[in-house]
Amino acid sequence: MDVSWRPEKSLAVTFSNDGVHWDDPVITFGPDPDSGWEDVVNRNCVLPDPSGNGWLMWYTGQVWNGSHGRSWIGLARSEDGIVFRRFRKDPVLSPETGFERESVMNPFVLYENGLYRMWYAAGETYEPNAICYAESHDGEHWLKSPQNPVFTASPANEYERERIGACDVLREENGGYLMFYIGYRDIHTACICAARSPDGITGWERVPENPLVTPTPGSWDADSCYKPTAVRASDGTYRLWYNGRAESREYIGFACGTLKD
Q: Tens digits of per-residue pLDDT, 166-215?
């Protein structure tokens, strides 16, 4: 599991034999304040390099000035998945449009049929506002979709009336795509939801089971459940790891369940 290690302003990895009990984290990638856009690094996505040469990582680099911040997406490479080095000094994705505001962040990348496909969050830095999409032939140079943002909040749904955030996308057996995402009831209260699309870009439909994971009063995730990562097990259930928050304390939790096909 690749994670953000907030006190270290870094990214880390931890290992488990059962998905529940995890080793102590080991830092894989740290900040670079001299770069001008990486005072803090967090919220990454790691894939085996399709060339067979190690691993690729897309990550969020951030700069904060008091209560205001900016975010970009960078690229790093590793031979062993433990020690990552910057692929280049500049970001590979930057905020450019009005709806992206000051931030692009939370990259999630799939490699399909010779193409890198990235879903990313955009908008404000404290919490983003929408989900966008981009494609690349080399993982470095990206073309943003003219249909961006491809997924936005639906105020009619109480669980996401404020905004939506980071996502994790799975390819389904029918060829479609299942996206787990964050729904914000308000800026400080979040839950985990899901939606389906035939192509991963258009026609997103929220699953009827939403919200899937919600805060538990008085518990370690009393305020927010967010930043999901999911896999589908051989028995058809979904195993989901997520970030939980109670006031300023953050943890990682585990949940499992089913969805109607």
A: 999 999 999 999 999 999 999 999 999 999 999 999 999 999 999 999 99
Summarised one tens digit per residue, pLDDT across range 127-168 is 999 999 999 999 999 999 999 999 999 999 999 999 999 999
Convert the chain into a string of H (helix), E (strand) and C (coil).
CEEEEHHHCEEEECCECCCCCECCCEEEECCEHHHCCECEEEEEEEEECCCCCCEEEEEEEEEEECCEEEEEEEEEEECCCCCEEECCCCCCECCCCCCCECEEEEEEEEEECCEEEEEEEEECCCCCCEEEEEEECCCCCCEECCCCCCECCCCCCHHHCCEEEEEEEEECCCCCEEEEEEEEEECCEEEEEEEEECCCCCCCEECCCCCCECCCCCCCCCCEEEEEEEEECCCCCEEEEEEEEECCEEEEEEEEECCCC
Question: For residue 146, is it within any domain?
Answer: no
* Residue 102 lies in domain: 1-109
Which residue, of 90, 109, 128, is where some domain finishes? 109
> Domain for residue 226, yes or no?
yes
